[in-house]
Amino acid sequence: MALAAATSSNIANIANTENLDTSLNVKRLSPVLGAEVTSFDVAGCTDAQFEQLLTAWDCAHGLLVLRDVHISPAEHIAFARRFGEPAMGTADPHSILGHYWHPEFPAIYRVSNKVINGVPQGREDAGTYWHTDGTHGNTPSRCSLLYGLELPPCGGDTIFASLSTSYEALSDTMKRLLQGLTAVHTLAKTLADGSQNSYAKELVGKADLAAAKTATHPVVRYHARTGHRSLFVNPGFTSHIVGMHSAESKALLEFLFAHTTQQEFLYRHQWRRNDLVIWDNTCTMHYAVSDYKAYGVRYMHRVSVKGETPVAA
């Protein structure tokens, strides 16, 4: 199937119509997605400084990399609260992935291949497939804040895709087709795609629980802060489009998945120790590259912020 290629003018229209706030130490990381912020006081920023950060975040299409951040777990959670209410986990080992939540700070989800006395300190292969956090829920996560505490000397990159830029690159005809469509997102899709992502390993024997985590969302979503439209489908959780025959739905979703993951719409983040990466789950998806385990330990803390019911564009 031929892809709808992004033209240079599509990308330029997005990149050039917004200027990053020069009062911050901000540098754009790619033409379509992401900005780096240095010397930002995460724990002590004022309301005005935080609003400047939000502006930079919006201009960078929902991806900020804060460099050389030194925060405690409590400060990490407190900073996340400025974006909204953190999603609280539970250390119940019988729940899905429950044993990966921090036992002292239940808003922190641990991502790691680190093992102490035979006990995994986090989920080793978290996010090793294209997905947007929490779309199998009725109110998907607004954003996620991932903090790199220990990193291997190489590998372990995270690739991000801009769902707003890829939407803008579609033809007007395709945009009209997508308008008003809704799609089902379900955790159970990981069982069907078990050979392609690691989540399925955690769901063995929990098919009923996985199937219960299902929601329906617009295919094209409106961003309340920026007014942008973005695609809101992802290979990890989107199972089918409502009202279409199975073959029609499959063909359209396969096209959209291939379209959104073209190189023109991606930024690949190479982690440094003490990076705090913040991404907007309303307009991005991501993929964690699991190629680092032979080279060392990777240990990270993630806080997810609750979102709202997606609004159709």
Describe the structure.
The protein is of the alpha+beta class. The chain has a single domain (8-305), classed as Double-stranded beta-helix (4-Layer Sandwich), CATH 3.60.130.10. 23% of the residues lie in helices and 24% in strands. The protein contains nine helices and 17 strands. The chain has helices spanning 8-16, 47-59, 73-81, 163-168, 172-178, 189-192, 199-202, 207-212, 246-260, and strands spanning 25-28, 35-38, 63-66, 109-112, 115-116, 119-120, 143-150, 158-162, 182-186, 214-218, 220-222, 229-231, 238-241, 266-269, 276-280, 284-288, 299-305. The strands form five sheets. The protein has a seven-stranded mixed sheet, covered by helices on one side. A three-stranded antiparallel sheet has the order 14-8-16. Strands 10-9-13 form a three-stranded antiparallel sheet. Strand 1 and strand 2 form a beta hairpin. The two termini are 26 Å apart. The model is unreliable at 1-18 (pLDDT under 50).
